[in-house]
Amino acid sequence: MSPRKIFSTAVLVAALLIGVRGAAYADMSKTVISAFRGQLVVSKQELPEGKNDKDTIAKIKKEKLTQLVGEAQEEVTYWNFHYTAFLSKTGSSKLKLEFYADGKRFVADKTLDGIDPKSSVLSGDISINEDEGLAKGKTYVVKLVAGKNTVVATTSLLMK
After folding, report:
1. Exposed, middle or buried by CB within 10 Å (0-12, 13-18, 19+), for 114?
2. What is the signed CA dihedral for 132, 135, 139, 143, rounded to 10 degrees?
3. Beta bridge partners of residue 129, listed in sequence order
4. Read out DSSP for 10-56?
5. pLDDT tens by residue, 121-138
6. d(CA 45, CA 81)
7. Mapping DSSP to helix (H, G, I), strand (E, B) and coil, where does residue 107 land?
8. What is the pLDDT of residue 142?
9. Band of the pLDDT at 139, cuts 50, 70, 90?
10. pTM value?
11. Per residue in 29-85, pLDDT tens?
12. Would you say 109 and 96 are in contact if contact means Cβ atoms under 8 Å apart?
C-alpha cells in the first residue's frame, strides 16, 4: 500500500471515529421512549435511570432544562449541554440540530454524523456559541431534522 493510500485510510478512520463519538445511543424501555417520542430533552448530563419506567420518566422530566446559562470565553458566550432525542422517525445516519429564533427564522445548526439509523434514541453533547448565530436572552426552537425537512425531535430553549 502506498503512503498516500495509508494516509487517506487513516484520515477516513479518524473521521468516522470522531463522528460516532459525538453521538451516543441510550438504551431505554419502549415505555420510556414512547413517553418522550418526538421530544429533544436538554440536560446538564446524561439522563438518570429510575427503579422502573414510571420512576425513570419522572427523573427525566425533572432533569429537562428549558434554559441554558452560557459561559463567557474571551468575548464570546458558549452554551454546552447534553441532549437526548427521542426520535419520532428513524432511518437517518445524518441529522442536523437546527436553532430557530421566534420559531421561524433559522439562525444556527450542528450536524450529527455517524447515527445508527435503527436507533430511536440519540444522545450526546453539544457546544455552540454566539459566533455561530445564537444570542443571549433569546428563546430558540431547537429541531432535530432528518433529510430536507423532516423534524424528528424538538424543544424550546432560552439562552441566558
Report:
1. middle
2. 0
3. 78
4. HHHHHHHHHHHHT-B-----HHHHHHHTTBEEEESSSPP--SSHHHH
5. 988 998 999 988 888 999
6. 7
7. strand
8. 92
9. very high
10. 0.76
11. 888 888 899 999 999 988 888 889 899 999 999 999 899 898 988 888 999 999 999
12. yes
Single out the residue of 132, 159, 115 nearest to residue 16, CA to CA.
Answer: 115
pLDDT of 71-90, one tens digit each? 988 888 999 999 999 999 88
Name the grid cell of 146: 432528518
Amino acid at the residue 105: R
The answer to whether 151 touches 139, Cβ cutoff 8 Å, is no
Distance CA 50, CA 54 (A): 8
Query: What percent of the chain lies above the pLDDT cut of 90?
Result: 25
Beta-bridge mates of residue 155: 142
What CA dihedral angle connects 73, 74, 75 and 78, to 10 degrees?
Answer: -10
At residue 82, the pLDDT reads 92
CA distance 122 to 12: 23
All residues at 6 or more sequence positions from 1 whose CB lies less than 8 Å from its CB, including other chains: 9
